[in-house]
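In this section we walk through a basic example: taking a raw amino acid sequence and producing a predicted 3D structure, encoded as discrete structure tokens. The instruction is simple. Fold the sequence below.
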Amino acid sequence: MDLPVSGRSAQPKTAEGTRGVQQNYTSGGTAGGLDMSAARSVTLPGQEPAYGFDTAYSQLNGRLEYSAADGRWLLRYITPGDRTDRLGGVAVLSPNSPITGFRSGDMVSVRGRIENDGAGRTMPLYSAATINAQRSMQR
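The resulting token sequence is shown next.
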């Protein structure tokens, strides 16, 4: 999902992370129509960004996790152990999100919107319009 950056002549800044993980930080502009001025993504070798988000939170990439304790699906969109964003790096998927066919641990790309940001007291609630499995970019 490395999309070309356009507008305000912003160029992605790349830093090599641990174990071959590439982190992209964008200093402004848009990518594929998404505001990327403060977005982050983490790309695993040979795959689209495994973890990431755009500043409007209209697209999140990450790992699905099922919480059996309370029957909720979570999406971890920031690499575990990495610095979190203002929402904590994990969102609860609303019950009306199209989760059918996925399992806990699946890497997905989700489009939707934040319904409730949790006000710093609870995890944000995210309403997903679409959920797609991340594809391997290997040939």
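Looking at the output, two observations stand out. DSSP finds no helices and twelve strands in the chain. The chain has one domain: 5-133. In the next section we compare this with other chains.
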